[in-house]
């Protein structure tokens, strides 16, 4: 298992992680020259690997008194909603601008290849709730004050990433591969 907490990397022995990592297709130079794109659609086509990935998150969060899973559009919706159902929490989508019809809170951020903005419905999360933020991948992420932990399937892990998470713990299943892997 690969975990970044307080800036310390720990390697565990979960035998499911190698298959999860291998199920993620690496596509060089997509969507731009120089980017090694980590394509989770191949993981989603592998029932066992997809289920194992969700189960690992569910096992981690089921006893942490989490009442809200916030998932980042679009790929974070896939994992976040599955995890929310698994731990008995509600799911709050963090959407690209203009997708949510109600009053929203907005947050601008810098991506690995661009900039963007996320919005969440006001009232989706109450002040006393414990929230986790789920995405498929963290390269340059962000988080706000009520977050217990941020989690992702793939993490471009270094201390710079952790600093940009504003000191919130970051839980990562696998590291990105930097070479093509047979798809
Ligand atoms: O760590 P970062 O630099 O923020 O990059 C990671 C984000 O980029 C991708 O989303 P994207 O904005 O491409 O949207 P998509 O999920 O709709 O493809 C990915 O799903 C993460 O949300
Ligand atoms: N290298 C990468 N692979 C897949 N999604 C991404 N989003 C930002 N960087 C990415």
UniProtKB/TrEMBL annotation:
The keyword Repeat does not apply. Belongs to the purine/pyrimidine phosphoribosyltransferase family. Pathway: Purine metabolism; AMP biosynthesis via salvage pathway; AMP from adenine: step 1/1. NCBIfam families: PRK02304.1-5 (NF002636). GO terms for molecular function: adenine phosphoribosyltransferase activity. Gene3D superfamilies: 3.40.50.2020. SUPFAM superfamilies: PRTase-like (SSF53271). It catalyses: AMP + diphosphate = 5-phospho-alpha-D-ribose 1-diphosphate + adenine. This is adenine phosphoribosyltransferase. The lineage of its organism: Eukaryota, Viridiplantae, Streptophyta, Embryophyta, Tracheophyta. GO terms for biological process: adenine salvage; AMP salvage; purine ribonucleoside salvage. InterPro entries: Ade_phspho_trans (IPR005764), Adenine_PRTase (IPR050120), PRTase-like (IPR029057), PRTase_dom (IPR000836). It comes from the Eukaryota. Keywords: Cytoplasm, Glycosyltransferase, Purine salvage, Transferase. It is found in: Cytoplasm. Its EC number is 2.4.2.7. One of its GO terms (cellular component) is cytosol. The keyword Endoplasmic reticulum does not apply. It comes from Glycine soja. Its main location: cytoplasm. Homodimer.
